[in-house]
Amino acid sequence: MCGRYVMAKAIGDLVAEAEAEADDNLELRQSWNVAPTTDVPIVLERLIGDDLHRQVHVARWGLVPGWAKELSVGVRAFNARSETASTKPTFRSAVKKRRAVVPVEGYYEWKKEGSKKRPFYVHREDGKLIFFAGLYEWWKDEDGSWILSTSIMTMDSPSAEEPGVLGELAGLHDRLPIPLGKEMMGRWMNPAEEDGEGLIEQIRAQAFDVASEWTMHEVDTAVGNVRNNSPELIEAHSNSLF
C-alpha cells in the first residue's frame, strides 16, 4: 500500500519532469509527510479541441466517486487495488475514463517486526520523481463547488527471491504502489485509450522494471506522526539495516 509520501519539489521542477503544463496561479505545498485527505498534485491529460494537453492539477488524496453522498467516502479510497479496481463501484468509472499519475519524490512504508514497525523511505537512486499510476474523479459538494480527488493504484509486491531492491521491497510490505515508465505514463493518461482494464495489465507488467531503479533506507519513527513535516524525515536512520 501507499499511505504516506514525499512531494516537496517546486511546481517548475514538476512541470519539467512530467513534461506538462500548469496554471500560472497554481501553488504546491511542500510536504515531507503527505497523508490521505490532503491536497496533492496530479498529472492528467485532456483533449481541448483536437489537441491533447498534459496538465498539473491539485486533488484531494482519497477518491470520491461522483455518486457518493458525502466527502468522507474518500477516506477509505486513497489506494485502489489493481486486481479489482475495474469492477469496484468506487473506481470502475475512473478506470475507463479518468486515469492520472501521482508524482512523488519517494514514499514511506513500515516493516512489521513482531509488535514493532520500522519506517523506511523508498525513492529513486537518481533523485528524480516517481510517477504512480492513479485515478481521479470530480465530486460536487452541496454548496455547488467541485472537488477533484485521486487514488494510487497498487499491486502485489515482488517475490523475496528477486535480486536487489525488489527483494527488499518484498520484505517491506506485501503491496506496491504501481510506478510508470515514461512511455507507459502517456498511454495510461491518454483519454482516447478506452480499455482501462487492459491498461491495468500493462502497467502491472512493467512495474517491477521501473521499481528496480529504486533504493530504500530506514528513517526515524517521527514520520509516524503527520504533524512532523520537515526534510529531516527522509534522512537515513543510524540503525538502518539496508
TrEMBL record:
Enzyme class: hydrolase
InterPro entries found in the cross-reference section: SRAP, SRAP-like
Signal sequence residues: none
Keyword set, alphabetical order: Covalent protein-DNA linkage, DNA damage, DNA-binding, Hydrolase, Lyase, Protease
EC number of the protein: 3.4.-.-
Keyword set includes Transmembrane: no
Keyword Coiled coil on entry: no
Family: Belongs to the SOS response-associated peptidase family.
Name of protein: Abasic site processing protein
Protein's organism: Glutamicibacter nicotianae (Arthrobacter nicotianae)
